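INTERNAL AUDIT FORM
Audit reference: QA-55
Scope: verify that the stored structure record matches its stored sequence.
Auditor: D.O.
Record contents follow.
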Amino acid sequence: MQEIFSRRSIRNFEDRKVEREKVNRLLEAAMQAPSAQNQREWTFVVVDDKQELMVLSRVSPYSGMVAKSPVTIVVLCDTARLAVPEIWQQDMAACTENILLEAVHLGLGACWMGIAPSQERMDAVAKIVGAPPSVKVFGMVSVGYPAEGKENRFIDRFDRNAIHLNRW
């Protein structure tokens, strides 16, 4: 799958709106991810209001690109759906990766910002998006059309030294 090798963390975006159909397709891809015991605990807040994006961009020293994005998807966990509570972050990571890969497929760029497990950041984002107490914030994904830049180039990250057969 070429999207795996083409995916990059894109932090600079064109000043161009992302079509609602493409945003919906990203969310459809997210919801196709595997989850423990098929609990599918994910839920999302799609933020495209410039003022709200500016506020979200300040929750972390690493979230500045949110202000530059035309849309950011906040990835949340509905704890009422948890059959296997200790696995929620793995499930959320799988659905977030699906968003990143589908973004590449659609000609978009995206950048994943981890919010969990920092309780301070989780609480800040939850307050901004109005999440109820039973919903935990996992992360945010800024999405847009990539602006030209060096971050778009391919970097081969394959490392044979990271592979061990049968035992370390």
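Auditor finding: record pair retrieved intact. Residues 3 and 105 are 6 Å apart (CA to CA).
Action required: none
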